[in-house]
From TrEMBL:
D-glyceraldehyde 3-phosphate binds at residues 104-106, 135, 163-164, 186. It comes from Lyngbya aestuarii BL J. This is Glyceraldehyde-3-phosphate dehydrogenase. The active site is at 105 (nucleophile). Residues 1-105 form the Glyceraldehyde 3-phosphate dehydrogenase NAD(P) binding domain. It comes from the Bacteria.
Length: 290
């Protein structure tokens, strides 16, 4: 999707990767309890398998000797702190959670501009649709799956399916609890997705005012997280973009003064990965001095 990694010298053997002269040890085991985190003095584990997303599952890394776990997916149950950079990262406290979640790529796109809209206009309720590139959870050919729609061939179908991304916004913006819901439409593209949010707001507004509030946030407190674009682009133009959320200002609509529609693009692979690194750095920044 993104091509080969350029301008990097990589060497590999059975037990390590050497990247630009820095050697990284490699180990593999299906059971996190068997991993040598204690022996290696590991502080933070980035849990990206998609398997150990509960507190119980992720905590196996803690039992193996790691001190913190960062899940690159929505956490499920238990005491897991969910943080979206640019939205609630300032609420992070080192001693509150041993397991944290970076939420989903879609929540990372949706939450920043939802926060802006709520702060400026007051969101009453709304619905979201993400037109999302197909993922590894779908089938390349018709095959078995617990979700009968995801069981269908991903590369030749538009696949309606569920998403918890809209409801999950309430984990990082508590005022949104019970106010947002949504669905996903999986489409035959390998990367870059787009969120379509429609909300009813308390304060009457108009298109230019909505766009102005989003642009000011993108150029100010949310710079690097939220971007603002008025160019007539398509999905492939956003491949490799670092931002979590790129508002497509030319598609913003306001109906009757209180119904607002905002469209935002996101590279659901690359952009999300940037936030994983940002959250890992945030955790490290708050680490108590030795």
């Amino acid at each position: 999707m993104l091509g080969t990694l350029k301008d990097v010298d990589i060497k590999a053997d059975e037990n390590s990767l050497t990247i630009n002269g820095k050697t990284v040890k490699c180990v593999s085991d299906r059971n996190p309890l068997n991993l040598p985190w204690a022996d290696w003095g590991v502080d933070l584990i980035i849990e990206s398998t998609g398997v150990f997303v509960t507190e119980e599952g992720a905590s196996k890394h803690l039992q193996a000797g790691a001190k913190k776990v960062l899940i690159t997916a929505p956490g499920k149950g238990g005491k897991i702190g969910t943080f979206v950079m640019g939205v609630n990262d300032n609420a992070y406290k080192h001693d509150d959670y041993n397991v944290v979640s970076n939420a989903s790529c879609t929540t990372n796109c949706l939450a920043p501009f939802t926060k802006v809209l709520h702060e400026h206009f007051g969101i009453i309720k709304g619905t979201m649709t993400t037109t999302h590139s197909y993922t590894g959870d779908q089938r390349i050919l018709d095959a078995s799956h617990r979700d009968l729609r995801r069981a269908r061939a991903a590369a030749i179908n538009i696949v309606p399916t569920s998403t918890g991304a809209a409801k999950a916004v309430a984990l990082v913006i508590p005022e949104m609890k019970g106010k947002l819901n949504g669905i996903a439409m999986r489409v035959p593209t390998p990367n870059v997705s787009v969120v379509d949010l429609v909300v009813q707001v308390e304060k009457k507004t108009f298109t230019e005012e909505v766009n102005r509030s989003l642009q000011e946030a993108a150029e100010g407190p949310m710079k690097g997280i939220l971007e603002y674009s008025d160019l007539p682009l398509v999905s492939s133009d956003y491949r490799g973009r670092d931002a979590s959320s790129i508002v497509d200002a030319s598609l913003t609509m306001v109906m009757g003064g209180d119904m607002v529609k905002v469209i935002a693009w996101y590279d659901n692979e690359w952009g999300y990965s940037q936030r994983v690194v940002d959250l890992a750095e945030l955790v490290a920044k708050h680490w108590p001095a030795a």
